Amino acid sequence: MHILLHACCAPCASHCIEVLRQLGHDVHLFYSNSNIAPHAEYLKRLDALKRLATLTDTPFLVDESAHDRWLAEAARGFEQEKERGARCERCFRFSLLRTHEAMLAHGFEGFTTSLSVSPHKHTPTIFAVGQAIDAQRFLAVNFKKDNGYAHSIELSKRFGLYRQNYCGCEFSNRTQDAHP
Asked: What class does CATH assign to 2-173?
């Protein structure tokens, strides 16, 4: 199956590419991360994903950053939420809707996200959002299974990938419990 993988960052995507290929899928990366702030951080993560794409021979697409739109649609009114709260679910929806639109526009057969590799993200929420968007085409792959997160750290070191120390948005960066 021709899959569009929403890549939250290169470290997380590294493991996901391997898993999807082992499952027999043709993988394209999709960098759609309007939540990431500041813009310099957005660019660092994009550069790391380009490096990963080259190292793994994985094609990729880049979505235009729409941080102001993300603030209005996903964050407004939820700025004080902690990680794993309602703001995160709204953020997942924002990114997965954009991934779904790109999947349809570019003729992919399915879509998924690297978000589920992180132990800091609530996988059932991610899956519920993806399935609500398109239950037929969303691949609910729990990438954290079989030590996926640890493997992503190993691959990041092997490939020399930039690893961030917060999820991405300015609200996760300011919290004490922010995680990569």
From this structure: alpha beta
